[in-house]
Amino acid sequence: ALPAGYVRLDQDILSPLAGKKQLYTYQTLDFWEQIKTPGMSLRCSGLYLSQFRHTSPHLLASGDGKKSAAIIGDVYIHPSAKVHPTAKIGPNASISANARIGAGARLINCIILDDAEIM
């Protein structure tokens, strides 16, 4: 028995809509990845970051570890985030708005959400 209020997307929502011909599709040539687990969100973030390298390289961070944090691989840092110069970030890291990354922090394959503080 399933817990009260539990909803199965494929069986409880999509199948009934398809049976009533109320389900539509959208065709795209862009990449698409299904996110079923938190780990898949990390994979998708990495895919977007690698895509930025080709389509929007100005969005990716850079740093040498002297005046700014050392950046390895594809990394996004929101302009409002504060990253200590001794931090080492990447590959595949995304740091959101107003996040604070402290001295000596090492971030790999992660998504840091708005207003988070990493010490």
From TrEMBL:
Coiled coil: none annotated. Residues 71-118 form the Mannose-1-phosphate guanyltransferase C-terminal domain. It holds the Pfam family GMPPB_C. This is GMP1. It comes from Brachypodium distachyon (Purple false brome).
